[in-house]
Amino acid sequence: MVSFDTMGEKKCPHCGEWSNWNQQFTDICENCGKTLGGRDLDYQEKRAVQEQENRENWIFYIKEHDNDFVKGMKKVGNFFYTVYISIITFIAWLIAVLPG
Ligand SMILES: [Zn+2]
Q1: Would you list the domain boundaries of the chain?
Q2: How far is the CA of 35 from the centre of ligand 1 (A)?
């Protein structure tokens, strides 16, 4: 479990000393100069990388090197996908609100 310690102070995961901090995982330890986030910061960064990878693996993700045709197709694909999801959501909602 993530402990937020006392307000304004956090035990540094690197040197074990208490340091002032502003509740940000990227704050720097006053004693050793490393980030106070430690494992929490690692986790946040890993999650950000993971999310970026998921986005890039998405079939309609527009990449820098795609040519205009591919970009256009992906935009159209994305549009229809959004419409499709909206319809599915609507049907699911309809089923949910209709009396059994
Ligand atoms: Zn430290």
Answers
A1: 1-57, 59-100
A2: 8
